[in-house]
Amino acid sequence: MLKMIHLTDTHLVEKGKRLFGLDPHARLKLAIEDINRSHKDANCAFITGDLTNWGTPEEYTALADALSKLQVPLHLLLGNHDNRENFKAAFPNIACDVNGYVQSSVDTDQGRLIFLDSLMEGTSSGWLCEDRLKWLENQLSDAAAAIYLFMHHPPFDVGIPYLDKIGLVQKEEFENTITPYKSRIRQIFFGHVHRPIHGEWLGIPFSTLRGTNHQVWLNMPFQEDHQLEYSYEAPCYGVVLIDAQKTLIHTHEYMYCDDIYSDKTKDLKPHV
Ligand SMILES: [Fe+2]
What we know:
With about 270 residues, the protein is an alpha/beta fold. The chain is built from six helices and 13 strands. A six-stranded mixed sheet has the order 4-5-6-7-9-8, covered by helices on one side. A five-stranded mixed sheet has the order 3-2-1-12-13, with no helix packed on it. Helix 4 runs parallel beside helix 6.
């Protein structure tokens, strides 16, 4: 069994500052405390990008301090809100590929985990250049068995017009790279959309979930000038359980704390 915790879009700002009226530090701290309390047995946790909101050295210092409390091994991915050099300065031991991109792979009892770096500074869109795709192809070609992909940007349109404008630019190239191996790719985990979405693409299951700070409201108008609407929907993390037969993902709204009960005779307040 492989147990992993999926966190995404933590968007940390400097300590003491708020983002969209929310405190990203407090929300990440609650997630970490909850994971330490309930999932210390996880093999690893991973954050699928947008680790910070502005990519400043101060934000990464604060991130490193916050994550030092997590009692589970951690894999970090970069998103469009991140800054690669500032991140690497704060996390000097982070695994990188031969070209310096924050890409790595790890072999587990359940297969190979491949972490991708789709950051192109200066744009919100995702970018997987020839070098990064070549590295990916090498990782795919010598994987012994099952493969799991992790990235910030979804590699296909998700049906929310504004988000699709800032999706992965090299969708076709990515598809061409993974297609020969798709029968062995058992899941793609991504971030970026701040919403729970799951399904399958090219026959490959995929999933993402809400971030730990702000969310994107489901708004899918068919119009060119679509703007994102944000929401205060509850933050989540995912608990991923993998064995040879299945991939199972629990979504946990870890800040929900109202009306949790075990006494079935308890007189709960009325709900609609
Ligand atoms: Fe984000």
